[in-house]
Amino acid sequence: MTTAEAPGKMVGKAIKRREDPRLITGQGNYLDDIKLPGMLYAAIVRSPYGHARIKNINVAAAQAHPGVVAVITGAEIAKEQNPLPCAWAAGGVQNNVNTPRALAVDVVRYVGEGVALVVAEDRYVAHDALDLVEVDYEPLDVVVDAEAATKAGTVQLHENAPNNVVMHWTCGAEQPTAQAIEQAEVVVKQRILNQRLIPTPMETRGYISRYDSATGEYTIWMSSQAPHVHRLLLTAFVLGIPENKMRCIAPDIGGGFGAKIFVYPEMASTLYAAKVVGHPVKWVETRRESCAVTTHGRDHITDLEIAGTKDGKITGLRVHTYANLGAYCSTIAPGVATTLYGRMVAGVYKIPHVFVEVDGVYTNTSMVDAYRGAGRPEAAYVIERAVDMFAQKLGMDPAEVRRRNFIQPDEFPYDTGIGMLPYDSGNYEPALDKALAMAGYKNFAQEQADARKEGRLLGLGICTYVEVCGVAPSKWIGLAGQGWGAGLWESANVKVHLTGKVVVTTGSMPHGQGHETSFAQLVSDELGVPYEDVIVEYGDTQGTPFGYGTYGSRSAAVGGTAIFKSVSKIKDKARKLAAHMLEAAEEDIIFENGKASVRGAPDSAKTIQDIALQAHVAYDLPAGMEPYLDETTYYDPPNCTFPFGTHVCLVEIDADTGKVTPLRYIAVDDVGKVINPLIVDGQLHGGIAQGMAQALYEAAVYDDNGQLLTGSLMDYAIPRADMVPHYELDRTETPSPVNPMGVKGAGEAGTIAAAATVSNAVVNALQHLGIQHLDMPYTSEKVWRAIHERNGGNGHVS
Amino acid sequence: MKFSGSHTINAPRERVWTTLNDIEALRTLIPGVESLEQTAPDTYHGVAKIGVASIKGEYTGTIRMADIDPPSSYRLVGEGRGRPGHVKGEGTITLVAASPETTTLHYDADMQVGGPIASVGQRLIEGASKLLINQGLKALAQKAERAA
Q: Which of 82-111 (A) contact B at CB < 8 A?
């Protein structure tokens, strides 16, 4: 048996991801790479109307088309299946929930809603046959704007939702906040829009459903961030079958950004189709379908008022938001727009009085749900723009206003008073100082003034954000609290095989986060085995313990802790067995660096590999000990974690064209302890790019008839590499007291901070023109018009 | 999408009106028309083939003349459906006698498109439509002028 030397410290090492060689050389196994014997292909007839009654569907011509196996309509599936579930209604209030079915029945409520499913021998035939399905629609009135949808006389999408309101939700104290604003020395009011975004994962969604008529069991391969949750929701709610009659398998996932958390109509329709046709059925989303029907993100209309004293103390914040949730409630949409948004608007500041109201609204648009950051980018945008506007009104340095209102390091755990769990730990000023030093902030005002003399518009934006990660204690987030329809713990099993090799199975489901690498680093250190000896398995409900999935930057803090605790249990058992092997008392055994030895006699050590072998062969175990080193943990976190940081962006605006060029982007993040700095940096790079993209380029646009005008990547502007600057990253490290590793989470931080940072930079460049706010995205036309209007019609500013 | 414009035609208003009321005129004015048959007084059914960017295909639909006020104006109300989506629109054509021998034609149209053509091609449709309308009107003007 090999007795590998205990490895060096792996946690904290910037090692390359072990996933990458396969993923970047075409060796990955994505959904569309999977081909099953006898597999058929599905394509979906989709509504071209934003709102219409389906008068008739004639499938005869499509059915007669050579190669077409079946054409399935919504009415047929509705006899067998329930509508999809909404698993997170807003907590503590009435929710007028309406969810989609596998395919529409009688009425379509957004462009792209599925009307019929064509199953054919190949995918080209399936797509060709879509044209042969004749659907007779009677167009109905359409509403796409969330505020307009709530007004009397507007078309109603659902009978049980008067004025199209899903829910009206509040947090904080209304009267004291109103009073604080009324009595304040300075008040700034502003309407700000957080525009709708299309998540655009590189790999679109796709599913392969199979039904085994002999056993009555379904298997579904899915591009998914949460296969266990999908199994639970599809079996218990949609199909009404026992959970053990379905197996969900998530292969390699090419990005999700939240959009692959949810239960989708195509999961349900392909499951139905597979049973009806008796063959596996594959459906892979086209890019245009991905733009139109995979959930969108953001889409808030917010009216805010921030109040304070003349010397820059914030005394009150009042926020009202219309959250456009689309035509139906997606899986966790109402909860995202309330708990993850409203309860985070106080940001990093001590604000005595905060009141937030959210109206979730149905409109004739695609469903909106969590998208990278999920509520927290919207919250950060509100508070960070508000603080900048407040500073602008006072004529104060926005960095100084932030400093004066920061929660102080000795005040943690800190309760913001609006129903969020107490912030676990924080130290906001060092991150701000570091970022400002990197940016050369003390010279910026002069540089900006000098540049203006040359006719150049420079702007610098600061965002000091906090977010909530590592979601969440089940009791707090659950039905009686925040309305989440289950628990939110994580699980892990760790086995040490007789060769000393370690297999970790996690309920957590990576889709780009590098779990295979960072979890192996963690186990390598904790168990004292070589990094190479640890493999991490996930993604198949058969063979992994239940997990709630990867989102809310929870994998390290919650999934990682479950692994940590399983390793601790393994070490406990190893210590017992080593005591038996060394004929010593258990309390005299110390386990360090993969070796158990008698205190004071290091030469007597038994390695974890020796112990694993003995545990497996079981020739001589202590009385009552079971064979094998195999431990499972279900870990429910006692609190969430609250990463924070300061981002700074420097932009230049061409006054003649309105073009905004990001010159520098500086991010100092505090994500707690870092397991793999390379992975954290990678997450920040991607996150910042997505946040900057919202500020500068991206917007999902519907016309008044509910037609999606940005239905392809010709019109929806995701950035290219040359459209974002080099990122200058640094960190501070404030460990989380919530979990034993001290980690917080890093998957969404970049996105949460970046839109507000860039927005503040653009407005900073224009504020001498009297501009208090401009809505994103900052297209050249929008910026040029803003300059032009405020400069007496003269587009040139100097 | 709204379009409007005007055109001067070197022909008397009555003659332009006659030209405009010919089914041939509609064939010239409707972009990409493949066939057009009269199905009722003032109502026509037809097929048009139009492509914008990658969204190409046939539309089947009807077009109806309404509010006919000879020789000065009428309204066209049309609706078509096809694989690329659906198109619905209406337009008013007004003729003003600029002189006994010249006529000014004003057009005003509002068009709504839906389905794939809206999500992929809408940005291109406006420009393309203006081009096609202008081509159609030019052809019509020439026809009226030649009819002398």
A: 111
Asked whether the beta carbons of residue A292 and residue B115 sit closer than 8 angstroms, the reply is no
Tell me if B115 and A709 make a contact (CB, 8 A cut-off): no
Enumerate the domain spans of chain A: 20-27+489-635, 34-140+202-255+260-293, 373-471+639-789
Q: Topology of A34-140+202-255+260-293 in CATH? A: Aldehyde Oxidoreductase; domain 3 (3.90.1170)
Within 8 A by CB and 6+ apart from A317, the residues are: A177, A304, A305, A306, A307, A345, A346, A351, A353, A354, A355, A383, A386
Q: Which of A373, A365, A305 is nearest to A341 (CA)?
A: A373
**How confident is the model over B25-31, as a mean pLDDT?**
76
* Bridge partner list, A320: A303, A357
Cα A469 from Cα A642, distance rounded (Å): 6
CATH number of the domain enclosing B78 = 3.30.530.20
Q: What does CATH list as the number for A373-471+639-789? A: 3.30.365.10
> Of B113, B114, B116, which has the smallest distance from its Cβ to A288's Cβ?
B116
Q: How far apart are CA A738 and CA A595, in angstroms?
A: 28
Looking at residue A104, its pLDDT comes to 98
Confidence of residue B140 (pLDDT cuts 50, 70, 90): confident
Domains A34-140+202-255+260-293 and A373-471+639-789 share a fold: no
Residue pairs spanning A and B at CB distance below 8 A: 49
State the residue range of the domain holding B100. 2-146
Q: Whole-angstrom Cα distance, residue A454 to residue A269?
A: 62
What total of structural domains would you count in chain B? 1
Q: How far apart are CA A319 and CA A302, in angstroms?
A: 7
- Yes or no: domain A20-27+489-635 corresponds to CATH 3.30.470.30: no
List CB contacts of A764: < 8 A, sequence separation 6 or more. A388, A398, A459, A460, A461
A291: chain B residues, CB-CB within 8 Å: 119
pLDDT number for residue B82: 84
Distance between CA atoms of residues A137 and A108, nearest Å: 9
Closest by Cα among A48, A64, A63 to B57: A48
Report the alpha-carbon distance of residue A610 to residue A400 in Å, rounded.
Answer: 60
Write out the residues of chain B at the interface with chain A, using a CB-CB cutoff of 8 A: 53, 83, 85-86, 112-116, 118-120, 122-123
Residue B54 has pLDDT above 80, yes or no: no
Write out the two tokens for A435. 């970022």
CB spacing of B118 vs A715 below 8 angstroms: no
* Mean pLDDT, each 10-residue run in order, chain A (798 residues): 55 96 95 98 97 98 98 98 98 98 98 98 96 95 98 97 98 98 98 98 98 98 96 98 97 96 98 98 97 98 98 98 98 98 98 98 98 97 98 98 98 98 98 98 97 95 97 95 95 96 93 94 97 96 92 92 98 97 96 94 93 97 97 97 98 96 98 97 97 98 95 93 95 97 96 98 96 97 92 52
* Per-residue tokens: A90: 């807003």
Q: Is the pLDDT higher at A364 or at B118?
A: A364
Give me the residue from B112, B119, B123 closest to A708, CB to CB.
B119
Beta carbons of A709 and B123 less than 8 Å apart = yes
Taking the CA of residue A346 and the nearest CA in chain B, the distance in Å comes to 38
In sequence order, what are the residues at sequence separation of 6 or more whose Cβ sits closer than 8 angstroms to the Cβ of residue A126?
A41, A42, A43, A68, A118, A119, A120
Whether B133 has a pLDDT exceeding 70, the answer reads yes
A337 closest CA partner among A184, A465, A146: A146
Q: Do A712 and B114 touch (CB under 8 A)?
A: no
How high is the pLDDT of residue B32?
80
Hey, what are B57's tokens?
A: 């295909």
- Are residues A709 and B116, on separate chains, in Cβ contact within 8 Å? no
